[in-house]
Amino acid sequence: MVSMPGSGQPASGVQEGTRTAPTGANGGRLDSADAIVVGGGTVGAWCAYFLRASGVGRVVLLEKDRLGQGASSRAAGVVRTQGGTAWAVQLGEWSRRFYLGQAELLGIDSGFTPQGYMLPCFTPAEVTAAHERMAMQNSLGLDVRWLEPDEFDRMNPAMAPGHTLGATYCAEDGYLHPPRNVTAYAHALAVSGVRVLEHTSFTGLDVAVGAVTGVATSKGRIAAPLVVLTGGPELAAVGRLAGVTIPAGAVRHQVAVTEQHPDGGQRTAACCSACRTRTSRLARPIAWTPGTWS
Ligand SMILES: Cc1cc2nc3c(=O)[nH]c(=O)nc-3n(C[C@H](O)[C@H](O)[C@H](O)COP(=O)(O)OP(=O)(O)OC[C@H]3O[C@@H](n4cnc5c(N)ncnc54)[C@H](O)[C@@H]3O)c2cc1C
């Protein structure tokens, strides 16, 4: 996300801090870059890596804490191509292919496992919506199919049978290992030459004549023509520091880890459903609201 307030003045959130520049990992002054990415989670870090990979020269990543200290190391790790919009489907499919090719590209991977993924329906309205979603996904080449209730029950014996009206299913969806993903992007940042500044907070955006000119940080200013803002659950706050309104928020999720269900094999497909209606009925270790990351 590149934010560029239209005024010729510094963005309202810019703090007039020290004019000195931060110090890079090698001890040298770091007063300019070709691109700066804010936030060392999976979005910011992979973005910084891909900026370098696409030929951008000096890329700096700012992280107020340490790489992976945000939501990215705490996620359940589901990688789902079954998005609710065409963009989400295409992004999901691109991500899945990237995760599959990581080892060859980088010599390290995020632990992606194509386990399969189901989205169960519990009301006729959900069935209608699922078929509309599936038609859109199939038109984009995604191999998603409909499971009748008995097939759904057979495929996931860890769940109480007889409760669904069917489900959509994509065998190519899966999960990655979030801490391993953090390790993978830390490695990718290092080998691609991204300058990572941990314990360095973004505090404001510098603009002049309607164009981004750099950032203010807790350790000084860095000039750059391109700034990417990420921040996970704190993205709206990062936006405020830049003087822009970013309509992003966070919802607390819970991941409950149980022992393996005796009927659930390693290849049992993952399943997504709404917490409030499922936890009392289904023996399902992980539950969250559908569409949260579609
Ligand atoms: C319990 C749980 C389960 C989840 N399960 C899944 C799942 O199964 N599948 C899925 O796709 N997603 C899942 N998610 C969501 C997923 O974790 C997030 O969408 C994703 O990690 C967001 O990545 P990010 O890089 O945007 O944010 P983060 O990983 O939060 O990184 C943002 C970084 O920005 C830094 N930062 C903030 N402000 C500043 C500043 N001013 N200056 C410098 N740095 C700053 C933070 O310190 C942080 O390190 C889950 C989340 C949770 C909490």
Describe the structure.
By secondary structure, this protein is an alpha/beta fold. It folds into two domains: 2-73 and 178-242, FAD/NAD(P)-binding domain; 78-176 and 252-293, D-Amino Acid Oxidase, Chain A, domain 2 (2-Layer Sandwich), CATH 3.30.9. The protein is built from seven helices and 13 strands. The protein has helices spanning 42-53, 86-106, 124-139, 149-155, 178-192, 235-242, 275-278; strands at 35-38, 59-62, 78-79, 117-120, 144-147, 167-170, 174-175, 195-197, 202-208, 211-217, 220-223, 227-229, 270-271. The chain has a four-stranded parallel sheet. It has a four-stranded mixed sheet with strand order 5-6-4-13. α1 packs parallel to α5. The protein is elongated, with a radius of gyration of 22 Å. The structure holds flavin-adenine dinucleotide. Residues 38-44, 62-65, 69-72, 74-78, 201-202, 230-234, 238, 241, 253, 255, 293 line the site of flavin-adenine dinucleotide. Flavin-adenine dinucleotide is lined by residues 38-44, 62-65, 69-72, 74-78, 201-202, 230-234, 238, 241, 253, 255, 293.
